[in-house]
Design a protein that fits this description.
The chain is mostly helical. Helices cover 53% and strands 10% of the residues.
Length: 94
């Protein structure tokens, strides 16, 4: 069932053609957080962006760029990120 939701969410993101790669990853991180998976590897976000055909090629710097985003903090494991708790409400409103 989550795959259907992810595909529908991906279609919505595809309609917003001006989103940069890091913003796509942030949107997917928000999606996974709402699906009960608050911590996600940056490499999984990159693979998901590619699998949903949102970008032809995802840069290898996505993890670094995502960790530098003010709405994101490092997760518990290597390469893992999560949304900053204080920014979740603001992201829900977007």
């Amino acid at each position: 069932m989550a795959a259907i939701h992810l595909a529908a969410f991906g279609q919505g993101l595809a309609a917003l053609d001006d989103l940069k790669e890091v913003n796509l990853a942030l949107a997917l991180l928000w999606f996974f957080d709402h699906e009960g998976e608050p911590e996600v590897k940056a490499s999984r976000l990159a693979t998901t962006i590619h699998d949903l055909s949102l970008r032809n090629q995802v840069t290898w710097r996505l993890g670094t760029n995502l960790r530098a985003h003010p709405d994101v903090v490092r997760g518990k494991g290597p390469g893992v990120v999560r949304l900053k708790l204080s920014r979740k409400a603001a992201l829900d409103d977007k």
